[in-house]
Amino acid sequence: MIYSLKGVVQELTPTFAVIDVNGIGYYVGISLQTSQNLKLESPVLLYIQQIIREDAHLLFGFFTKKEKEMFNLLISVNGVGPVSALILLSSLSLSEAANAILSGNSGLIQKVKGIGVKTAERIIIDLRDKVGNFGNSEEKLSVSANNKNKNEALSALEVLGISKKVSEKIADRILKQNPEASVEELVKEILKNI
After folding, report:
1. What are phi and psi of 123, to 5 degrees?
2. What is the DSSP string of 116-130?
């Protein structure tokens, strides 16, 4: 079983990459999240999930172990194939997907191409207890220095009667785009986006 590939990006599209490992090119299906982290002719290490079928040996590559873990959780759900899982990972960040599953937001999951009502409900039921460690994982990295500003902004909004759960998601999104946002900027932007 192939666990990872370390080589050079030979070809790159939003949905697949060819990784040259010592002269052998491996065709690897990837998500948009992984694609955005790769550069043509640059060295790379991808974590691989190999799927063997009667008619094909497929490789799917991920820039992070967390993304690979989420992919494996998604394909463990009856009715979710590798292509649907990649589309979901291309449409939503890991924390957005995890938060949608944890909060039972099937509407957000259904927005992903190819996932209907029943499949979205199945994903939520099957994975609700398994995705807790994915929630806000990406945001924690970029926001850690700004936790003080974020917490002050969330407290101010709570005083105004706005639930912390709602404002926290918006705050994380704002801080991802603007890590230097002040408390005042955060409060204004959160109020605009509610």
Report:
1. -60, -45
2. -HHHHHHHHHHHTTT
Q: Is 162 exposed, middle or buried (0-12, 13-18, 19+ CB in 10 A)?
A: middle
Picking from 124, 116, 121, 122, the residue whose alpha carbon sits closest to that of residue 98 is 124
| Residue 192, token pair as written in the block | 């605009």
Q: Which residue has the tokens 């509610």?
A: 194
Q: Alpha-carbon distance 168 to 30, whole Å?
A: 30
- In tens, the pLDDT along 78-134 reads 999 999 999 999 888 888 899 889 888 889 999 888 899 999 999 999 998 888 777
User: And the tokens for 159?
Assistant: 């005083």
What number of other Cβ atoms are within 10 A of residue 142's Cβ?
13
Give the pLDDT confidence score for residue 8 in this predicted structure.
97
**Helical axes 164-177 vs 147-159, angle rounded to 10°:** 140
Q: What are the residues whose beta carbons fall under 8 Å from the beta carbon of 182, sequence distance 6 or more?
A: 149
Token reading at 16: 């697949």
3-state secondary structure of 75: helix
pLDDT at 145 over 80: no
Q: What is the pTM of this model?
A: 0.67
| CB-based contacts of 185, cutoff 8 Å, min separation 6 | 174, 178
